[in-house]
Amino acid sequence: MTTTVPEPGDTAQASDPREGCIEGLEALAQLLRENPELPLPYDGMDGQPISFFVDGPSSQEQALAFVEVMQEPRLELKPSVYHGLHVFGRVGGIKVKLHIDPAQVCEKTTSGRYASPDDQVLSEVTEWRIPAALLDAVGQTEGEVPRG
């Protein structure tokens, strides 16, 4: 078995981080395919998924593109966590987790607020409504989405 490891500062590597990531994934897939004696990445009970942070005005479209290729996707909403709308699933044999900013894709309603005596808002009681397209894509209803 011959494995080529790039030297630090090797300019032959892709300068675009996206292309570099894709090339690395393709090289890893080829290495594993050609060398069945090599172990697969650890995927035990607490095996960590590959994480993707979906952000910006096209967040819903990006999330739907990922969900389309996932097996058994499921949503979870933790609005107190940065990018707290999560989609868990698998793409082939790889665990994947999407981190989505609820403010980018959900409708936020405020049902109450806590204020100081001088009327400064201390906190709000909010509800995030997940878009129907995303719920349909993962096969869940609003009431089935765990919230933390």
Overview of the structural elements:
The chain has helices spanning about 15-35, 60-70, 100-105, 130-140, and strands at about 50-55, 70-75, 85-90, 95-100, 105-115, 120-130. The protein has about 150 residues and is of the alpha+beta class. The protein has one domain. The relative contact order is 0.14. The mean pLDDT is about 85.
Terminal-residue CA separation? 48 Å
Largest sheet: 4 strands, mixed
* Strand-pairing-aware structural class: alpha+beta
Q: What is the count of distinct domains?
A: 1
Q: What string, H for helix and E for strand, traces the elements in order?
A: HEHEEEHEEH
Rg from C-alpha positions? 20 Å
Strand order of the largest sheet: 1-4-3-2
Mean pLDDT: 87
- Stretches where pLDDT is under 50 for at least 5 consecutive residues are none
Helix count, DSSP H or I runs of 4 or more residues: 4
> What percent strand?
25-35%
Number of strands: 6
Shape, principal axes of CA atoms:
elongated
In helices, the fraction of residues equals 25-40%
